[in-house]
Amino acid sequence: MTPRLDAIGLVASDMAASLAFYRRLGLDIPAEADSAPHAEATLPSGLRVLWDTEETVRSFDPEWTRPTGGERLGLAFLCDSPAEVDSVYAELIEAGHQGHLVPWDAFWGQRYAVVLDPDGCGVSLFANAA
For strand 99-105 and strand 75-78, is the pairing parallel, antiparallel, or unpaired? Predict the structure, then answer.
């Protein structure tokens, strides 16, 4: 048997805020998950995104501490067009989320932007240039 990537896990300091952010990016997460210690969303590809509260993680890993410093994992959301990158970025900023990199035309041929989720994780928005 060969292991296969099945899920990406995120630790949320505020579950409701984290899930609201990812709902704005199209993930189908039930409302009742906002108050749960664990939540999941299955993407069309079958890959799952998992969220656990900090308390949940500490329940099985008492030594766990909130990371500080640079990121080691990033999520990237493909948009249908460069204009959608701009509009999704603007929508997230208007909703009160922090921008990290405003939309720009990257040298590798994509329209690209980065917004921070409620826990400060960079979430990329990108589309192939027209």
Answer: unpaired
